[in-house]
Amino acid sequence: MQSASVHRFETRAVHGGHTKPIAEGAMVSPIFQSTTYAQNSIGDSIQHTYSRASNPTVARLEEAIASLDQRQHAICFATGMSASTALFFALLQSGDELICSDVVYGGTTRLIEEVLQPLGIEVRFIDTSDATALRRSISKRTKLVFVESPANPTLKIADIGALAEVTKRAGTLLAVDNTFLTPCLQNCRELGADIALYSTTKYFDGHNVTVGGALTLDDAQLAKKLRRLLKTMGLNQKPFEAWLTLQGIQTLPLRIHQQSRTALELASWLEGLPAIAHVFYPGLPSHFQFSLASKQQEAGGGIIAFELKSGFAGARSLVSSVQLITLAENLGATQSIVTHPASMTHADLNPHDGARIGITPGLIRLSVGLESFDDLKADLAFCLLNLSDSISATGEVTL
Ligand code: PLP
After folding, report:
1. Most ligand 1 atoms within 8 A of CB, residue of 155, 179, 181, 346 to mutate
2. 105 catalytic residue (yes or no)
3. What is the DSSP letter of 292?
4. Helix (H, G, I), strand (E, B) or coil at 38
5. How far from 184 is each of 180, 204, 251, 335, CA to CA, in Å?
6. Is 202 considered catalytic here?
7. pLDDT at 136 over 70
8. What is the pLDDT of residues 339-354, one digit of tens each?
9. What's the topology of domain 4-249?
């Protein structure tokens, strides 16, 4: 048998975390739903002591994610937000500087503005689609550059290789939130990033049943610090969630490739509709970073954003008239989900700041599921064709 490290991604997705032999001949790793672990004597050095610090099922998930991302270490957390909390607390202290992409998940901005900045950590939000902007902004006090690519929700991307050159030269660390693509479609280690962050809630789980997060990295000392923070701050993933995520991972490559194919078909079709001002999808030749996306991503991914000519009125009409697609906050699941970022995931942004970075009242984010293209198209067509009929000469909806 080949060693695990030479197996292809699809094989690692199926077998990672289910290392044989498993007790009783089971095909699937069991759930270790145990708070604590018996010790034989004082000072007994057992692997797991208490499930806030570590748990065998969570450890299986960590093995699986480390193997998919080809990293020495994966550390799982209760949520994607607890993964970013641990990362920021491990690397930043008062007086240090964090450089962050201007477009990131709204919860990340909230964490930075409501927790980090009041602690005296300085933050610069910059346009990370431009590596020269990073070159200009980085300083000796910059302890971390945190980038989301593609960004939630505008799908702007960053040239990870170019940013990594800048951070390496400056002697600082580059972390990439790779939630939208997963290691299946974007290998952050090969591109030069030091750390990848995942909300496993999204594609790793893939079925809308858990919340979770993970960090992957090669630096053993930083991994140790992160694990200590996880235990100290109680940021741990739970065994049942970890077990469900392990089942989800087995079909991750199949799901995300199919979701990308359907997303590309939908994005191409949406682009031609009169109700739509602009479609943002890195797999479309019209995306302003199409050639970069083709170089650093294996596919466009399963998320599309589009701007309606009729603004907020059109967005409200669309999200309330879809039948098959659900209006909700999650993404990356088997069922398609539509989100209105300005009032949902990014509602805490001041509308002026939101509009400046493209999170406008008419922007819709679509997470493409595993339904047939024809059915998704029919669901959207019904809403969008009605919308275009009702747009007045001024571009306002007259429903
Ligand atoms: N990163 C991205 C890109 C996200 O979209 C989200 C949540 O939507 C998070 C991080 C936070 O993850 P969680 O909701 O699992 O805490």
Report:
1. 179
2. yes
3. H
4. coil
5. 10, 10, 11, 20
6. yes
7. yes
8. 999 999 999 999 999 9
9. Aspartate Aminotransferase; domain 2 (3.40.640)
* Cα separation, 314 vs 312, whole angstroms: 5
Are 83 and 89 in contact by the 8 Å Cβ rule? The answer is no
Tell me the CA–centroid distance for residue 252 and ligand 1, in Å. Answer: 17
Q: How far, in Å, is the centroid of ligand 1 from the Cα of 84?
A: 9
Residue 61 scores a pLDDT above 50? yes
Superfamily of domain 252-390: Aspartate Aminotransferase, domain 1 (3.90.1150.10)
46 CA distance to ligand 1 middle (Å)? 33
- The token pair at 232 is 């100290």
Mean pLDDT of the chain: 94
| CA 184 – CA 206 distance, rounded (Å) | 13
Percent helix, percent strand, percent coil in the chain, to nearest 5: 40, 15, 45
The angle, 0 to 180 degrees and rounded to 10, between the axes of the packed helices 239-249 and 56-69 is: 30
Whether residue 177 lies in the annotated active site:
yes
Task: At 179, list the tokens.
Answer: 């939630």
Q: Under a CB-based contact definition with an 8 Å cutoff, are residues 213 and 84 in contact? A: yes
- 315-337 pLDDT tens trace: 999 999 999 999 999 999 999 99
Ligand 1 pocket test, pick from 182, 201, 215 with the greatest ligand atom count within 8 Å of Cβ, gives: 201
Give the binding-site residues of ligand 1, using a 6 Å CB cut-off.
Answer: 79-81, 105, 107, 148, 152, 177, 179, 199, 201, 211, 213
| Rounded Cα gap, residues 164 and 121, in angstroms | 22
Give the DSSP per-residue string, 90-154.
HH--TT-EEEEESS--HHHHHHIIIIIGGGT-EEEEE-TT-HHHHHHH--TTEEEEEEESSPTTT
pTM: 0.96
List every span in the chain annotated with CATH 3.40.640.10: 4-249
Whose Cα sits closest to atom 14 in ligand 1?
80
Q: pLDDT tens digits, residue range 260-269?
A: 999 999 999 9
**Which residues make up the CATH 3.90.1150.10 domain(s) of the chain?**
252-390
Is 118 exposed, middle or buried, given 0-12, 13-18 or 19+ CB atoms closer than 10 A?
exposed
Known catalytic residue: 52?
Answer: yes
